[in-house]
């Protein structure tokens, strides 16, 4: 009796697993303790085609809205031409590529089935947060301080947003110290519809000057790892910023897409981080790292007024595209 009972139990549990649907509505499989779905199943459900461009390594999914490229054992993906870092690496199993269910719901769906604002609540008021300030210079490159250049960029972004019809305000307009918790609080008190935090990167050490490109961060979804973490942080629960996971992703994506397409900056991708300004934001928010102060080609976009203005225009264009998508007519 015992072995038969055990076999029966085993078969029942196998059947349960294969018949179970994940949060994506697709059949799921557990890999490394996480919920995954076959990329072929996801593609088919969306009317797409799957093609291995490098056998067992790179898979391309062509949907009506664009091409999605995934790499086995990697979290880097390219979605409609822009890099997006997944929460879980793509996995190869039983001859098929698999993607984390969490990545379908939090990274892909916001782009394929974008979130919408409530009728009569268009994106209107934007708070721009120039990073650092006062006692905190941010990154340094020689005598140049990040806090000075993000303030210049912020004012250029604000001026262009104003021309595009937005109401704009700032967490700081001068060289003042603003504590991190205060930044999202300012945006909340003003009833802002979006919070955009602006920063520049730097890379030290040998070879540091070769590191370049733009990246845009949005809040890490609950119980997943941030992009620059090595698996840690997956136990973290939900913060206020997680109420807007879908809009956060769409906003970061559109800013990153416009920045890289319009300025020629290297595409370091949309990334996830639990930065305090993103954690605390009670409205959709993104944190832009618009280039490396330590790289000669990025530095031109940062320090040279007319070139920086193009960067500001690209950020504004990304925000305008986001607004067009989420606002109800
Ligand atoms: Zn910074």
Write a structural description:
The chain has nine helices and 17 strands. The protein has two domains: 21-112, 2-Layer Sandwich (Copper Amine Oxidase, Chain A, domain 1); 125-326, Aminopeptidase (3-Layer(aba) Sandwich), CATH 3.40.630.40. The strands form four sheets. It has a six-stranded mixed beta sheet, with helices on both faces. A hairpin with a 2-residue loop joins β4 and β5. The chain has helices spanning 2-19, 39-45, 101-112, 146-163, 180-189, 245-263, 276-279, 296-303, 305-326; strands at 29-31, 34-38, 49-54, 58-63, 66-71, 76-79, 82-85, 91-93, 96-100, 125-130, 140-141, 144-145, 167-170, 194-201, 214-219, 267-273, 285-292. By secondary structure, it is α+β, with helices and mostly antiparallel strands. α3 crosses α6, α4 packs across α9 and α6 (245-263) runs antiparallel to α9 (305-326). The structure holds zinc ion. The site of zinc ion has 5 residues, from loops.
CATH topology of the largest domain: Aminopeptidase
Q: Can you write the helix and strand succession as a string? A: HEEHEEEEEEEHEEEHEHEEHEHEHH
Tell me about the biggest sheet? 6 strands, mixed
Global structural class: alpha+beta
Instruction: List the uncertain runs.
Output: 1-19
CATH superfamily of the largest domain: Zn-dependent exopeptidases
β-strand percent reads 25-35%
Secondary structure: number of strands? 17
- Evaluate the radius of gyration: 22 Å
Shape call: globular
N→C terminal distance: 66 Å
CATH architecture of the largest domain: 3-Layer(aba) Sandwich
Small molecules bound in the structure, each named once: zinc ion
Helix content: 25-40%
Question: Which strands sit side by side, in order, in the main sheet?
Answer: 13-10-14-17-15-16
The level-1 CATH class of the largest domain = Alpha Beta
